[in-house]
Amino acid sequence: MRFLIAFVAVLGYASAGLIAPLVYGANAGDLQAAATDATVAAQDNARAIGESQARAAEAVIQHNTEAVRQVAETNRDLHENAYWGSLAASQNLVAAAQSQAAAINGIAAARAAQLAPIAPLAYAGYGYGAHGLVAPYGLGLRAW
C-alpha cells in the first residue's frame, strides 16, 4: 500500500509540471524571453546562411581565377614550346644543308684528286680536265 501511495505521489508531482502552465497560464516574461530567443535564433540562422553563400561565392571566384591562370600558363607553355621547336627545326635544317654542302665539296675534292694525275694529259677546253668533269655537274658547290 505504501508503494501505491508513493507511486501516485510521484506521478502527481510529475504531472503537475506538465499541467501547471495550463492551470496557471503563461508567464508574460517567459513568453517575451521565448520570443526574443526565437528572434535571435532566426537572425543567427539568416546570418549563417548569408555567410555560407558569401563563402561559396568566394570559393567559386577563387576556383575560376585558378582555372584562368592554369589556362593562361598552358597556352604560354604551348606557344613557347612551339617557338623553340620551330627554332630547333630551322637550326637542324641549316645544319643539314651545311652538312650536305660539305659532303658535296668533299666529293668534288675527291674527284679532283682522282683526276689530278691525268689532268696534264687532258685538254681542259673540251671539258675533260679536272674542273671540266667536276664543275658542270655542280659538284664544286660552296654554300658558305
Can you offer a commentary on this structure?
This protein is mainly alpha-helical and 144 residues long. It has 3 helices and no strands.
List the defining traits of the structure above.
81% helix, 144 residues, disordered C terminus, rod-shaped, mainly alpha
Major sheet: none
By helix and strand content, what is the structural category?
mainly alpha
- The first-to-last residue Cα distance is 129 Å
Q: Which percent bin holds the helix content?
A: over 70%
**How many H/I helical runs?**
3
SSE sequence, one letter per element: HHH
Q: Unreliable stretches, pLDDT < 50, 5 or more residues?
A: 122-138, 140-144
**Proportion in β-strands:** under 5%
Mean pLDDT: 78
Shape: rod-shaped
Total E-strand runs: 0
For this structure, the quaternary state is single chain
